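Page 47, continued from p. 46.
Same chain as before, 497 aa.
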Amino acid sequence: MSVRMPELDAEILGRRDRIVTALRSIVPGEGVIAGEREMRPYETDGLTAYRQLPMVVVLPETTQQVAEVLRYCHDEGIKVVPRGAGTSLSGGALPLGDGVLLGMAKFNRIREIDFENRVAVVEPGVTNLAVTNAVAHAGFYYAPDPSSQIACTIGGNVAENAGGVHCLKYGMTTNNLLGCEIVLITGEVLRIGGKHLDASGYDLLGLITGSEGLLGVVTEVTVRILKKPETARALLIGFPSSEDAGECVSRIIGAGIIPGGMEIMDGPAIAAVEQFVHAGYPLDVEALLIVELDGPPAEVDHLIERVETIARDCRATSCKASRSEEERLLFWAGRKAAFPAVGRISPDYYCMDGTIPRAQLPLVLKRMKEMSAKYGLRVANVFHAGDGNLHPLILYDANVPGELEKTEEFGAEILKLCVEVGGVLTGEHGVGVEKRDLMPVMFSEIDLNQQQRVKCAFDAKGLLNPGKVFPQLHRCAELGRLHVHAGRLPFPDIPRF
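Result:
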């Protein structure tokens, strides 16, 4: 493993058998997995370059069991790593060798669908696509749609603030989340928000969304569902260069047009996807822009004409509009199959995630080509062009000594470039372990300490998902520069949290 994780606690490992026995009393039956062979499926997440067997896996079925497990771990000083479907691409669910991996897969029920208030109440183990399937018969859908939506869970979506191809118009998870039930490391159960917008008090919901399992474990989620638009059509627009495609994106947004989705794929990605899905993508172009427009039919027809005009002005060489719902879905099927398709042309790939201002797309794409030549590694670009969320796929072979390390350096340089041009380190994949040590590129020491103080307010012992997000491991006392002598706190009469 090329990333540094917290040192294993020999004292905890020495108590492993007792810990497993105690956890089995809380979650009986098949809810505790302790055998090495049986734990192998949990040793990594979507960032398969890093692997670590957990000390034990626990699969609770009820909120009460989650609360009891967390309370026990808190009292015993045992680390806990929450896990959804394990599709995280930043190592956010990477286990710890001396910690409990808390799998939420059994929380897979849709508890309530309220069409009148346009909300669905689901458990965190429900897959993203299952929410849309549950409401589709009434003409509704759930807007966030990450490429992994057939497998990724709502709980993981909340942890990473997942987006998807339609987030440009309809927002990320945070824009579609109304409430949640969360269990703190102490076992306390909190309910935040509900079936209404803008709950009173502090925006704790905004704090929980994207917190990557560092603050608590989500056991219930209330999400907003939307009515399907009257019409939706997609355009496939081919360009002689990625820079031209990037310029077209900027001009479309600059013209006041907000597509339902807008995605770019470059030449290597196009070739891989077309061979894999046969979606009708042009193979004689260097970049492909997918633009979806939705709304009333007359409006969609008008916007298609405007987008076609802008595309021609940006040197587009081909333009094809979907003529049926089946063809529209086929266009998107290619885009959503991009990751597995690229996996067919390379032994391994490293999926990056950074966000830049849209106007910087041409520059960033040009610089990435230069980096590709510098490192001698191919890159297939697939990304959410509308909101500037880049997903460069760096192609490498893990069996070649030193190539993973070279890939990590290349990826870090891409992310530093994102920050340099006014962007951020991540868009929707989170920080995890992948970008943890790059956080000082974007944040000052004061910024990071303030973020860690928020963590300490929820988890004073630092037991939830340690080793993720923050580049340095601090204790709450260290952050406050609190001196404790002989176990006696100064000014014991002052309330503390």
